[in-house]
Amino acid sequence: MQDSFGRNINYMRISLTDRCNYACYYCKPDISKHLCHSDILTYEQLLDICRCAITLGITRFKITGGEPTLRKGYIDFIRRLKELDGVEQVTLTTNGSLFSFTDLDELKKIGLDCINFSIDTLDESEYLKICKKNNLKKVLSNLEYAYQIGIFVKVNCVVDNLFTFSRFESMLELIKDKKIALRYIELMPLKYSDRNTKMNELIECVQKNYTLNAYNNKLGNGPAHYYTIPEFKGYIGFIEALHNKFCGDCNRIRLSSVGRLKLCLFHSDGVDLKPYLNDLEELEKVMKEWIFKKPKEHHFEEEHSSTVMNEIGG
């Protein structure tokens, strides 16, 4: 469906849980405060919301968290979501630390369209400092296996005020001989994060040291600008929420694990869908009304948002 600004809203990000087994310094989930399991939507309730979303023209879904693989039964939920009439694409964003190869085999079997692995560095000591976990080898093993069995793989790398060009160059190892999309994502000033990033500085350094060829084909639903580098098989992408606003083309809405429909990461407005779950006709009506009112743009360049990343999944 279209919102009031004529944007085609066809993509929903679904948070399965606010919990995460990591504690990345730029996200800072409050691990002492978690939702009770009774607070979060059941999988059947989530599927009901997805059915209404499909009726409204939303056919692409991203499964997020917190860390979505922490929630028991997430693979079966993805299977059921993939089976809904009208679904075009289902993808998953994860830190990749909790997979078994059997899990990945099952995700391939049910047709998961892409896995986004969150990996901010290939240096083990730096990885430990960032996320407080020493899981890098396992994550890279899972990424390698997912790629080898034919699941399309992307890597999300956050660019904050501590990011270095040397880290960028080391990360290129991931795309040297693999058709992986490596995306550098500018840190947005959410509740706990720093406004300062090195995205502009990074892009300038990359342009000086590498030949970038624009890659104009779509690699998913996100706003990344993709490029190829000679002699590298994969792609690099830049997502610049602050310095290259893409609000005019925004096609997404977000659903929290407790059923709140959020229209923009910056804005606090949204609607609690829980009261309407017993009447799907009314649920669809409410969703349509609120999606139509999606804000024109964010204002991250002016102020922080109260959004907490682990509650909404990016």
Automatic annotation (TrEMBL):
The record, for PROSITE patterns, names:
RADICAL_SAM (PS51918)
**Which InterPro entries does the record associate with it?**
Aldolase_TIM (IPR013785), Elp3/MiaA/NifB-like_rSAM (IPR006638), MoaA (IPR013483), MoaA-like (IPR040064), MoaA_twitch (IPR010505), MoCo_biosynth_MoaA/MoaC (IPR050105), rSAM (IPR007197), rSAM_sf (IPR058240)
Q: Where is the Radical SAM core domain?
A: 4-216
Cross-referenced SMART domains: Elp3
BP term (GO), one: Mo-molybdopterin cofactor biosynthetic process
- SUPFAM superfamilies with a match to the protein in the record: Radical SAM enzymes
Instruction: Supply the Gene3D superfamilies for this chain.
Output: Aldolase class I
GO MF annotation: an example:
4 iron, 4 sulfur cluster binding
The reply to whether Lyase figures as a keyword in the UniProt entry is yes
* Name this polypeptide is given: GTP 3',8-cyclase MoaA
Q: Which gene encodes it?
A: moaA
